[in-house]
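Q: What would this complex look like in 3D?
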Amino acid sequence: MEYLQFIIIILFSPFIQGVIKKFKANMQGRVGPGVFQPYYDLIRLFQKDMVISRVSSWVFKATPYIVFASTAAAAMIVPVITTSSRLGMMGDVITLIYLFALGRFFMALAGLDTGTAFGGEGSSREMTVAILVEPMMMLSIFTAAISARSTNIGRIAEMHNILYSPSHILALSAFMMVIIAETGRIPVDNPDTHLELTMIHEGMILEYSGRYLALMEWAHYMKQMLLFTLAFDIFFPLGISTSTEISNLAVSSAVYLFKVCFMAVLMAVIESSRAKMRFFQLPSLLGGAFVLAVLSLLTYIMMGG
Amino acid sequence: MESYFYTGILFFLLGAVISLIPFQRAKNYIYILSAIGAVTLIISGLYLSSGTQIHIPSIPISSFLEFAFQGDALSGFFVTVISILALPVSIYSIGYTKNIGNKGLMGFLYNLFILSMYAVILSGNIITFLISWETMSVVSYFLVTFDRDKQSAKDGLIYAVMTHIGTAFIIALFLILYKNTGHMDFSGIKASIITLPPDIRSIIFIFSVIGFGTKAGIIPLHTWLPKAHPAAPSNVSALMSGVMIKTGIYGFVRISMDIMGNGPDWWGITIIVIGAVSSILGVLYALMEHDMKRLLAYHSVENIGIILLGIGASMLFRSNGLYTLSAIALIAGLYHTLNHAIFKGLLFLGAGSVIHATHTKNMEDLGGLIKSMPYTGITFLIGSVSICALPPFNGFVSEWLTYQSLILGFQSSSITSKIVLPLGGAALALTGALAAACFVKVFGISFLGAPRSHHAEHTREAPLSMIIGMAILAVLCLVFGVVPDAVISMLSSSVFQLTGTYGLLRGNWFLHINETVATLSPVSILITVVAVFISSVIFILVVSGRRKTTYSDSWDCGMPSLTSRMQYTATAFTKPIRMIFKRIYLPRREIRVSYIVKPFFVKSIKYSGEITPFFEQYIYEPLTILIHKFAGKVRLLQSGSLHLYLGYILVTLILLLIFGK
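A: Here is my prediction, written as structure tokens for the whole assembly.
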């Protein structure tokens, strides 16, 4: 039972990617691949041979496992359908952010390990985006943590007492920017491109193939689902079960499915209606979101929190 | 327990004495003696830090002057920190100093340097403290200039000047303390500090920030640090960055927290602001460095900032009467002090063995070292992951505690601290992300990819003793990250001494903070990561079976001429950061093109770019010019003419006769 949520994240994360892709295709007037396409992709990749660069070292080979493992460890911490889980004792929301950072650190190293300009470019850009995103993520979570008087994610979800206050809305909008940037979506990054000049995430993993690529992609899907779930836990915890009774879990699963679909539509809308920004315009976009996060904190304190 | 202590000191003294014997064979054993000394001092430091008192008889010089030593829990903790680093560094030095010129002098200074740090930490009165402090500064000056080249002489001079500015403030603050309390010994001063008016206490606080801050390397008093630390031999750099700058932290905590007791809110806020500024600017400047050791030195500035965030929060909570929170914040600060000693020591040793093997500090000439130096590579990687505060290594635990204590600001009653503390947290998050970028650069450019120059091509792994030294520290990075309880129980007596509570509840394997319902169990994170790692390896074996793996060239866009010069460089890697923070860096660049036939046939293009060292250029340079001008004016008095000097004496005499009565 304890590990159910962890398994949900691992098994359903490719599905969410498929749903987003489907919505996006519909919005752009295409039929698009089916929602299960990411699963087929993963299976296919797992069964392919690999080509590895001669220049690379063991860091390149260890990275897919480290990225997958750190994301999986993060999945242990985040409550998906119930806040009643002893695994939440393992760490809190700060731990979660740093587990993501661990994966990113190794991914960026792997980008440099193959000795190509693309990999280096991807790593450099990814770390730059992280510099802009991480303080913003921390601050918007601080607001939630301070108002819930806790950094434990389950606890924050149970308290949900900053709902619909001005600081809540500000923190939420900053956090949405975090999700877009962290999942490598338009306008920050383009997940579908392999054009050298624009790619960030894809640049880093360009040299990966076969099962390593499958692990990297899967970890990326998991991270995306985790970020969505984190947003629900912190900003829309309504409906999440606080116990492990089957009836409660059924309700909360249904609500969760609805929320995820809503989020997928939202992502598709944002991606279809915006163009990718130039890399050096990102600081003004993300800097603006950072200001929102600061404002959210200040509003919360000024309003007597 | 005293016997451990004396044995340890004796071994270091022995090491120093043997170094002076003109007998080459004996000199190979110097560092073995230091290592044994360090082991016994770890034991006595642990005893001390658990609250056991230690009595060291004082040595009277005259009725006024005596050398007095005292040891309490706080000193015990710092003794432990110094010894834990001194042990692996001594082992490392066995191999590292093999080909160094003037081994004897090195061994002598090395042992004396460590002894002087112990003396600073264990000083019981003002005079002892100042003499030990000065000894430490002078000995480290000789170590900085050990290589005897022009550059290290210049860097050494800057170090000497800056450190004495700091010492001047420390002397001033001790004089104020002595004048107002009438005591020379720290316990006497502490007992009668309560009678001091608040203004005087604030002056003492400011002086201690400047005096000890210079040694610790806070911004803007940091300028000596990135010059002096890299100039020294790497084993000494490890000690300087790892523990010597911590004596500044010790002095500050001793004076401003232990002796002075509670202060007003703004003390804590000042320290938090200094901490935030030092950590962000420290890491920003580190990003632009391509000299490995200078880069690490800037990271020391950053980490001192992180330590000060914890200590500042602790002071702020204590002056608000929130003692439990103060204890948590203090644990965070001191925990990070220990952690920084370990991973920074490790990184400097790693840099040392890279330089030992390649004879270059410039990262742009390195690359691919992980293949020829696998052990240095993996220990350096562990150090990098630890300093970036990534789980499950030690840096993460102390930064996690720092975050917790900054978030806990909501319990404070004053609006200012409610705002300042979480913003400190945001500064810490920014610092963390910048540090991660910086170490991706350091490790990725120097150890991964293909060799960028002949320096990096035919390298050999460091000798065994150096690897053992680094391996010990790498293991400690993991141990202190996974078993936080060990460190916190080591800290508890000092924390109790300073705040009156123990702070956080803890189980055997996890941290628990009641106030935020926050728990952290690094060991289960480690187990999870390892378990998923192994099971995904097995999963892949099952799902994909034995598939073929081909080794081939990297993707070269179909032009088969990829060379190592086409790789991303350190400069290129940090370019976006240089663009984003251009208001801070004030970058300049110059492109010179020479033509054969203008404008079509280019002969050569020269590119040079640099950032403006803001503090050096806009604060220190004008100040130096001002001092030189003033000195020029004073020089008029010193004409060198004997008659004029006799005239001075005459005038002084007459003036004294007139006004003397």
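A: To summarize the key features: The first strand of chain B starts at residue 59 and ends at 60. The CA atoms of residues 612 and 618 of chain B lie 9 Å apart.
Q: Very helpful, thank you.
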